[in-house]
Specification:
The chain is α+β, with helices and mostly antiparallel strands and 143 residues long. 42% of the residues lie in helices and 13% in strands.
Length: 143
């Protein structure tokens, strides 16, 4: 999952979520049903027929999240998933990521510059001096 949603503008939200399944050879009917289930998971079941340009930034990001999870991965990698969103919408998207993380038993790795969201994670690290250190720790010794 990326900071920018990378949804295909000529397809609906439902079709965008189904795309990874179709690319793997799933039957169209099955792919659309699974995509509809995931749109429901991200509270967008009523927006499946809308194209990305007809969705808000938060809705686009939730479609991208559904698309990232439609193949039932065990690992969610998210690079600045709320970077293009206002603080309130970012909080809502992060709430959703937390809920899906727990309910689907995901391992989730998120990269963010938003320290408020990072502080909500089970474990938060920062890149400092070329090393990963716990958030809030002193900088590594440069000797």
């Amino acid at each position: 999952m990326w900071q920018f949603h990378y949804l295909l503008p000529e397809f609906t939200a439902l079709e965008n979520v189904a795309m990874p399944l179709l690319a793997r050879g799933a039957q169209k009917r099955e792919a659309l049903q699974l995509a509809a289930n995931w749109l429901k998971e991200v509270d967008l079941e009523d927006r499946g027929g809308h194209r990305p340009g007809e969705l808000s930034g938060g809705e686009q990001q939730r479609v991208a999240l559904a698309r990232a999870l439609v193949n039932n991965p065990r690992l969610l990698l998210a690079d600045e998933p709320t970077g293009d969103l206002d603080q309130t919408t970012a909080g809502r998207v992060f709430d959703l990521v937390e809920r899906l993380h727990a309910s689907h038993g995901l391992t989730s790795i998120l990269v963010t510059h938003n320290l408020d969201l990072a502080a909500r994670c089970t474990r938060a690290l920062k890149l400092e001096g070329g090393r990963l250190v716990p958030l809030g720790a002193a900088p590594p010794n440069s000797n």
